[in-house]
Amino acid sequence: MTDEAPVAQSIRSFALQLRELFVRLRNRDDHGLGNEDALMRDQFLLGLRDSPIRQCLKTQLRRDPALTYEAIRREALALELDQQEADEQSIGVAAATSSACAPTTSSATDWKRELHIEIMKDVKAQMAELSRTLLEELRWSRSGNPPPPRGRANSEGT
């Protein structure tokens, strides 16, 4: 029953999914659950993705082991809401400061441009060598004489 919450799943939907699984398990004759609230609380904490919210809830549970599933769930929802609001505010701040970061992008594009030029020079040199080799082989094939041996081994390994 340790379904980890996927990255995009909210705490609310994860809690609902966990409760549905728990009810199905409890309806079985041989469930042997024991302390149901503690089990739900622990499974809820185990199933949350590793995040600041999970760490905060685990700390609260260590400080007060008597916390119920419902108390942990409510706190998780409140923390998630706080985090969403903080994320929305930081997006606004990031958008406002993005214009200040623009000058640094020119240096990033400079090295990309230089790398592109260097790669293009290498490709041109390789194409020139390939063209020269191909023309040489064509001349030898027209004359009927085999080309002189090269420094490289052929495909047969000789």
> What level of helicity do the residues show?
over 70%
**Domain module count:** 2
SSE series? HHHHH
- List low-pLDDT spans: none
Over all CA atoms, what is the radius of gyration?
Answer: 33 Å
Number of strand elements: 0
Task: Report on the biggest sheet.
Answer: none
Question: What does this protein structure show overall?
Answer:
It is a single chain. By secondary structure, the chain is mainly α. It has helices at residues 11-26, 36-47, 52-63, 69-97, 102-143. The longest helix is centred in the C-terminal third of the chain and has 42 residues, at 102-143. The radius of gyration is 33 Å and the shape is elongated. Residues 137-158 are annotated as: Disordered.
Secondary-structure map:
Layout: H1 11-26, H2 36-47, H3 52-63, H4 69-97, H5 102-143
Helix pairs in contact: 1-2, 2-4, 3-4
Task: Sum up the structure in keywords.
158 residues, mainly alpha, 2 domains, elongated
Short description:
The protein has five helices and no strands. The chain is mainly alpha-helical and 158 residues long.
